[in-house]
């Protein structure tokens, strides 16, 4: 039988337990992952990944082969399973948690044990769901987020390392720069702290989306009433005590609810355009149930529907109300959920507020429906996020034949092209006279919309979504009540061209309970004009309507009543009476109106601006009044207002006119609204207007002139407010300027191009001039300019070459005072914000030459502010942006196999101008550990990550003088040593620490080169201080806790080794390499480096020990040649061994290696001091044996006698074998301390 290397079968999972009871058998447990090296007739040879050192054979039938990726050569191949990253992570996490979970049981931590068990079971179940492959993409995404949230929660609770991730997937540290990795860690840490105790993520996504929609589908109604039923669903905010949506109607026939597929669309709706403020725990679904039938309901209606419907007239009567809080939907994550809620009844007169009684639990006002078969209303709901068009594209089936139920009011964002023209009228309540009767009336209100001639406007009334438009609407009837409250909202969709002549008429009828043809008798009416004489639409709010008596419908004609006052407000100014109708002085009806229109306004001042061509003489007054208008009113009519302003702004040939200044003032006022958090989401609206609707080709000249005028007037006036507003609005002002110029160029064949560029440069020069000097009055104006200027340059790239714009940007930054002390802190902050925005813009990323120009200027200013430690957070953000971009470009170079010399030049500038200052800044602030320290350290390591041999050579050439080079190296060595010794990053940021260590390891290799070349050649050039600092740094790096792999769990150790190898071993060989070049200068490090090197050799890594133990031979040999003995090495080695072994370092394997390697070296080299050396090595070996014996019994009362024995052995060794009196005395005192507690006073004395 021949064993052959496997080619495809490289990785598998054990599906059975196997004892390995054959020769060379490898025992396996279910779930063990194995790497397969060879195969032979149904058997595999390989190793379990949990212990790679033990190889063996196992049956192939026990292994499930999994696809994998193989990297490296045969001897050093790395196998990575090709499975979903989240599945892979879950597998590794369950293995790691398993051992910890068992220890929790042993340690009797019951609560944590049970909690972790529950989470582990959830993870196993969810992992199984992922592996089935039956989930949709949305479900997969949600499940992965849920899994990673559980993992992060568990890691935090168990004290394990933070997993940096983007979304649900772990990040690969090698795929991003150190600064990006730092940002990911910050975000992951924030997300992890936002995980709840149940291990679920507290959602933050909804805060980023401005618009939401609620899908509702009625599934069943558990009450058979025997009459036609109408159920009106609406959204209600209990905190504001008002409905926030119009109503949605579901009709149910007298036969009962039919949940057939073909009828589902009529049972479903989407409540659209809900804002973040609408989705709160105070929002409820309210279902008003009304029956259509007889005035009085009886149980007999259920039995015989013929008698109940025999009447020619049916009445709409209140039946019950159901209430459901939607708080649970807010955390549903987009999943559809089903709910059941009961219907309650109350008195007819309280029907309008019954929902409020139920919410406030005023149980004496309502009771559940008495029928034993009623189980209420069943419905399902789902929250959808994003703009309606986008949601419609993502869910086409959901929107098929479904009615949309709109919000009462505008959505948070109104896009150009969004046309809405709805007037909502709520019939609130009425006050009617009894008319000499003992019982109250049964009043039904009929709503109609007519024109001036009395012609009915058809299909413009909507009692609710889910029903067709109608020509008239009848309200419900409150039984025998003269003060009915209806609270019914109706939507009017009157065509805009008919608004001016349209009016609403409310007809009041008394309904008799008798079954006769004329059981609805008209007794009065009210009316309301939809548009006021001024041209403004009916005002929002409550209106108390006057009631006019009329008993016959034929007498109702607009000619007779439109001249009469319609409301109590009008009555004061219009006391006209009529011979046809008499006004009822004690009767009235209250309605409430709300206009939701993008074409009709209720504001007279805004209307006069929009209709400026009709009355041009009123333009000045209109502009002045628009300045004090509410911003909400302006943004609703944004497109029309802007069109009007640009039409007024200039003459037909593009020249200024008398109104240009005021128009510019109004335009600035509107644009400054976009900086208000309340209106910032209208920026996409403005962008859409500029791209698709803006058509003023001649305004660019006047706009440039106006901006220049503001810049030149800065120092001439104390009132800076208007100029500040202008500068804050520069981004959109220049968008208008550029777009206007494009329109003009397309229309004229690019005429006056040179003139336009001269005007442009003239404006920019004026802006730069105002930055030269700074004083308190103009400082805020300068700050406003700096915050906006980057966006201006972004726009200028559309009309000027990138290099030219970069030069303009550099000139602007250089125009500021050149000394940091001359800049107030607020201006410094604004300047750095401008730089940050520039390095994130096209100027920096789209062209090599423009980036080079900008980078030189930015680095110069960064250096200045780093030196003064101004705004370090902003400095680190700028460097992060620069370093991230250059790193990504370098990776693209590697992928494409191309070399971009400009990137080398960029890095050369960064290295020359910022590296030394960054090192100095970190060195100064590291002891104070300010919050910005982590970001600056990430920038420093990120910069070192980008530098290659070429950049270091350039740096050494720049530092050609010996003193500057020495100072730089000393600062670099010191700051790196402090970084590896101090916890700059949180303890659980292991991925970040490992990535940083990998960069530091590479940097140390390069930093050692000038030591060898410039500080070694002769005695006069040798610098002991620099070399000592290097060795101290190397030892500190190698012995730092983050690299002690043997203290890690098996899973964690495997991850680190597969990614980076053992960095201690690499550092050890680097130390050995540098040490070997010292030659005669080795004597300078005796005895000072004996202790540090001994600490290196004690690290429990066999290859490292084998390599570095040779240093002691070199030390002994060097000291022997210089001083004739190696007493210093001997003394220091014994002292430090005693201390380090007491600190729990070293083991018996080290003792054997120390003895074997050094004795073999002495035998091989055969030095003159061979005999003394062999004796010393043997003596130290015996000392090690005694120290290890002593350490093994240092704890526990049962080891007290052994401790005494070991202490006696040690003190005898120090006294008799090596004659070290001070060490002998130390252990005499230790022996005394052992005898006293044992009451051995004679021995202690």
List strands and helices in order, with pairings:
Elements: E1 4-5, E2 11-14, E3 33-40, E4 43-48, E5 55-59, E6 63-65, E7 68-71, E8 78-81, H1 85-106, H2 110-132, H3 137-157, E9 165-166, E10 169-170, H4 178-193, H5 205-208, E11 212-221, E12 228-237, E13 242-243, E14 248-252, E15 268-274, E16 283-293, H6 300-303, H7 305-308, E17 315-325, E18 337-341, E19 343-345, H8 354-359, E20 367-368, E21 377-385, H9 388-394, E22 403-405, E23 421-431, E24 443-450, E25 461-462, E26 472-474, E27 485-492, E28 503-511, E29 520-529, E30 541-549, H10 558-561, H11 568-571, E31 582-597, H12 604-610, H13 619-626, H14 631-636, H15 638-649, H16 660-672, H17 683-692, H18 700-712, H19 721-728, H20 730-748, H21 753-769, H22 776-796, H23 802-815, H24 825-839, H25 842-845, H26 848-867, H27 872-896, H28 901-925, H29 933-946, H30 949-958, H31 962-981, H32 990-1014, H33 1024-1039, H34 1050-1060, H35 1063-1076, H36 1090-1097, H37 1102-1108, H38 1110-1123, H39 1127-1142, H40 1148-1165, H41 1170-1192, H42 1200-1217, H43 1221-1235, H44 1241-1244
Parallel strand pairs: 15-22
Antiparallel strand pairs: 1-3, 2-3, 2-6, 3-4, 4-5, 7-8, 9-10, 11-15, 11-21, 12-13, 12-14, 12-16, 16-17, 17-19, 18-21, 19-20, 23-27, 23-31, 24-26, 24-28, 25-27, 28-29, 29-30, 30-31
Give a quick rundown of the structure:
With 1245 residues, the protein is of the alpha+beta class. The protein has 44 helices and 31 strands.
């Amino acid at each position: 039988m021949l064993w052959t290397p496997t080619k495809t079968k490289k990785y598998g999972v054990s599906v059975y337990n196997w004892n390995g009871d054959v020769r060379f058998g490898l025992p396996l447990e279910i779930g063990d992952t194995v790497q397969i090296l060879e195969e032979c007739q149904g058997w595999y040879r390989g190793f379990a990944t949990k212990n790679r050192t033990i190889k063996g054979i196992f049956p192939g039938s026990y292994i499930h082969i999994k696809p994998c990726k193989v990297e490296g050569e045969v001897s050093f191949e790395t196998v990575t399973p090709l499975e979903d990253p989240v599945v892979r992570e879950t597998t590794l996490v369950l293995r790691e948690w398993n051992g910890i979970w068992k220890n929790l049981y042993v340690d009797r931590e019951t609560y944590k044990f049970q909690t972790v068990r529950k989470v582990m079971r959830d993870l196993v179940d969810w992992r199984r769901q992922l592996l089935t492959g039956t989930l949709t993409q949305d479900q997969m995404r949600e499940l992965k987020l849920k899994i990673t949230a559980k993992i992060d929660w568990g890691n935090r609770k168990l004290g394990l390392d933070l997993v940096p991730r983007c979304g649900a997937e772990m990040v690969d540290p090698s795929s991003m720069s150190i600064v990006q990795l730092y940002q990911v860690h910050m975000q992951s840490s924030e997300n992890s702290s936002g995980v709840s105790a149940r291990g679920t993520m507290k959602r933050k996504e909804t805060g980023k989306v401005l618009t939401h929609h609620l899908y509702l589908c009625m599934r069943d109604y558990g009450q058979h009433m025997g009459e036609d039923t109408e159920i009106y669903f609406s959204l209600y905010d209990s905190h504001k005590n008002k409905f926030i949506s119009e109503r949605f109607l579901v009709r149910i026939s007298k036969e009962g609810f039919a949940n057939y597929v073909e009828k589902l669309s009529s049972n479903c709706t989407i409540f659209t355009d809900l804002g973040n403020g609408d989705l709160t725990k105070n929002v409820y679904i309210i279902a008003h149930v009304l029956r259509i039938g007889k005035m009085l309901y009886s149980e007999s209606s259920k039995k015989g529907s013929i008698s109940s419907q025999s009447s020619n007239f049916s009445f709409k009567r209140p039946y019950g109300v159901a209430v459901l809080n939607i708080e649970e939907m807010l955390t549903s994550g987009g999943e559809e959920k089903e709910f059941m809620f009961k219907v309650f009844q109350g008195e007819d007169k309280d029907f309008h507020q019954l929902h409020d009684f139920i919410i406030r639990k005023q149980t004496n006002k309502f009771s559940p429906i008495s029928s034993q078969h009623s189980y209420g209303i069943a419905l399902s709901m789902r929250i959808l996020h994003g703009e309606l068009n986008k949601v419609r594209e993502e869910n086409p089936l959901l929107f098929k034949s479904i009615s949309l139920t709109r919000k009462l009011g505008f959505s948070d964002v109104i896009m150009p092209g969004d046309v809405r023209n709805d007037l909502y009228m709520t019939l609130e309540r009425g006050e009617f006279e009894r008319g000499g009767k003992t019982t109250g009336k049964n009043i039904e209100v009929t709503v109609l919309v007519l024109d001036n001639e009395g012609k009915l406007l058809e299909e413009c009334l909507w009692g609710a979504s889910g029903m067709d438009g109608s020509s008239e609407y009848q309200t419900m009837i409150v039984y025998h009540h003269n003060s009915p409250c209806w609270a019914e909202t109706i939507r009017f969709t009157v065509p805009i061209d008919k608004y001016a002549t349209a009016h609403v008429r409310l007809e009041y009828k008394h309904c008799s309970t008798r079954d006769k043809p004329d059981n609805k008798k008209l007794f009065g009416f009210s009316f309301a004009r939809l548009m006021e004489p001024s041209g403004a639409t009916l005002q929002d709010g409550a209106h108390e309507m006057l009631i006019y008596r009329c008993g016959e419908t034929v007498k109702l004609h607009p000619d007779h009543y439109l001249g009469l006052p319609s409301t109590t407000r009008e009555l004061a100014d219009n006391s006209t009476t009529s011979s046809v109708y008499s006004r009822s002085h004690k009767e009235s009806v209250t309605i409430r109106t709300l206009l939701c229109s993008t074409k009709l306004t209720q504001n007279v001042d805004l209307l006069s601006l929009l209709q400026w061509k009709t009355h041009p003489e009123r333009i000045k007054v209109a502009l002045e009044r628009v300045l004090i208008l509410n911003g909400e009113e302006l943004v609703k009519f944004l497109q029309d207002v802007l069109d009007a302003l640009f039409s007024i702004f200039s003459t037909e040939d593009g020249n200024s006119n008398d109104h240009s200044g005021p128009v510019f003032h109004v335009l600035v006022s509107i644009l400054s609204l976009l900086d208000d958090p309340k209106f910032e989401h209208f920026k996409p609206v403005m962008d859409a207007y500029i791209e698709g609707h803006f058509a003023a080709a001649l305004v660019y000249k006047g706009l440039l002139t106006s901006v220049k005028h503001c810049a030149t007037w800065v120092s001439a006036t104390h009132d800076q407010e208007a100029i500040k507003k202008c500068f804050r609005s520069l981004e959109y002002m220049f968008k208008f300027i550029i777009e206007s110029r494009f329109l003009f160029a397309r229309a004229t064949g690019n005429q006056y191009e040179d003139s336009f560029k001269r005007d442009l440069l003239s404006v920019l020069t004026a802006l730069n001039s105002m930055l030269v000097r700074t004083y308190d009055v103009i400082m805020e104006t300068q700050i406003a300019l700096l915050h906006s200027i980057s966006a201006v340059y972004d726009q200028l790239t559309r009309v000027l070459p990138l290099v030219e714009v970069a030069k303009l940007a550099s000139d602007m930054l250089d125009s500021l005072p050149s000394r940091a002390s001359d800049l107030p802190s607020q201006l410094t902050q604004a300047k750095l914000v401008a730089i940050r925005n520039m390095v994130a813009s096209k100027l920096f990323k789209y062209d090599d030459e423009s980036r080079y120009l900008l980078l030189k200027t930015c680095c110069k200013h960064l250096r200045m502010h780093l030196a003064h430690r101004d705004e370090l957070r902003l400095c680190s953000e700028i460097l992060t942006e620069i370093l991230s971009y250059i790193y990504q470009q370098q990776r693209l170079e590697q992928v494409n196999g191309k070399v971009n010399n400009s990137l080398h030049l960029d890095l050369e500038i960064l290295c020359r101008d910022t590296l030394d200052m960054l090192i100095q800044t970190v060195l100064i602030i590291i002891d104070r550990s300010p919050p910005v320290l982590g970001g600056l350290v990430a920038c420093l390591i990120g910069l070192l990550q980008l530098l290659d041999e070429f950049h270091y050579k350039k740096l050494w050439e720049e530092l050609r003088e010996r003193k500057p080079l020495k100072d730089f190296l000393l600062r670099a060595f010191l700051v790196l040593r402090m970084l590896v010794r101090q916890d700059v990053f949180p303890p659980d940021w292991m991925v970040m620490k490992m990535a940083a260590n990998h960069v530091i390891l590479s940097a140390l290799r390069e930093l050692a080169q000038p030591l060898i070349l410039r500080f070694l050649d002769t005695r006069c050039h040798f610098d002991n201080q620099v070399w000592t600092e290097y060795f101290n740094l190397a030892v500190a790096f190698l012995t730092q806790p983050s690299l002690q792999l043997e203290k890690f769990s098996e899973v964690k150790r495997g991850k680190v080794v597969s990614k980076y190898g053992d960095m201690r071993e690499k550092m050890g060989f680097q130390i050995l390499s540098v040490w070997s070049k010292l030659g005669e200068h080795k004597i300078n490090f005796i005895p000072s480096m004996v202790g540090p090197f001994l600490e290196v050799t004690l690290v429990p890594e066999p290859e490292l020990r084998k390599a570095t133990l040779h240093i002691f031979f070199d030390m002994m040999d060097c000291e022997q040649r210089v001083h004739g003995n190696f007493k210093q090495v001997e003394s220091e080695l014994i002292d430090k061994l005693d201390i380090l072994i007491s600190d729990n370092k070293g083991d018996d394997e080290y003792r054997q290696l120390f003895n074997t390697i050094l004795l073999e070296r002495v035998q091989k080299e055969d030095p003159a001091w061979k005999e003394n050396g062999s004796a010393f090595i043997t003596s130290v070996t015996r000392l090690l044996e005694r120290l290890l014996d002593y350490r093994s019994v240092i704890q526990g009362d049962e080891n007290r006698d052994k401790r005494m024995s070991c202490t006696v052995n040690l003190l005898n060794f120090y006294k008799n074998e090596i004659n070290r009196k001070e060490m002998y005395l130390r252990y005499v005192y230790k022996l005394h301390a052992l005898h006293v507690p044992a009451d051995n006073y004679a021995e202690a004395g």
